[in-house]
Design brief:
Length: 215
């Protein structure tokens, strides 16, 4: 994200009540921190800053696969859906000299959610605004910062089920793309994706198509 959009960051620390603060982008395009409950409430119409990490590996059959989390059935949003290898909010701890360290935040989430302690090489590849519709509320807006990484199968050995993530799946990239491009009502039953993940894949496909059409 451009440095000029990171001015006036309010680096709030959790209080004794352990309030969690997450990053939002205000109307001036600047990053601020709000209590997570407030930021997540669609009535407040705040655009949250979210990281989404696309993880790739090669399975035992030699196929190039995406590593997708399957969210816990107990999750309020998108229970039992497939999503990024790691994703989450930007926290105050993700600031380095008043700038958001997106790569560091992705490494943190990969460790917290997938148990990967030896962090592989990560790259920030794109960003876009994700919008989700919720009846009776303004669109839920998220500024998605997308990253990519290559992970060895052995690095997944420390994965354990958590309240957030029930499992992970290795799915050939072509299969993921085919299912995302298929109408949800016509997909195979197991392929339920979170909206931000779907929109991220479509965004990258559209970006690649646009580049291919350039003279």
């Amino acid at each position: 994200m451009p440095k000029e959009n990171l001015q006036n960051i309010e680096n709030k620390e959790p209080s004794s009540e352990e309030i969690e603060y997450v990053a939002v982008i205000n109307n001036e395009g600047e990053v601020e921190f709000e209590a997570r409950d407030k930021a997540s409430n669609p009535e407040n119409d705040l655009k949250r800053l979210i990281i989404g990490l696309l993880g790739f590996t090669r399975n035992e059959e030699g196929e190039d696969c995406m590593i997708l989390q399957r969210r816990s059935r107990s999750k309020k949003e998108y229970p039992d859906h497939l999503t990024f290898a790691a994703s989450g909010h930007i926290n105050p701890e993700d600031l380095v000299e008043d700038e958001v360290d997106f790569i560091g935040a992705m490494a943190r989430e990969l460790n917290e959610e997938m148990g990967i302690t030896t962090i592989p090489s990560l790259a920030l590849i794109s960003s876009f605004e994700s919008r989700e519709q919720k009846e009776g509320y303004p669109d839920i807006r998220k500024e998605m910062m997308l990253g990519v990484t290559q992970i060895e199968l052995s690095q997944l050995e420390n994965f354990t089920t958590t309240d957030e993530v029930s499992s992970y799946e290795l799915i050939p990239w072509e299969k993921v793309l085919t299912q995302v491009m298929t109408d949800p009502e016509d997909r195979e039953e197991k392929y339920k994706f979170t909206i931000p993940f779907e929109q991220s894949i479509l965004h990258l496909v559209d970006t690649a198509d646009a580049l291919m059409r350039e003279p």
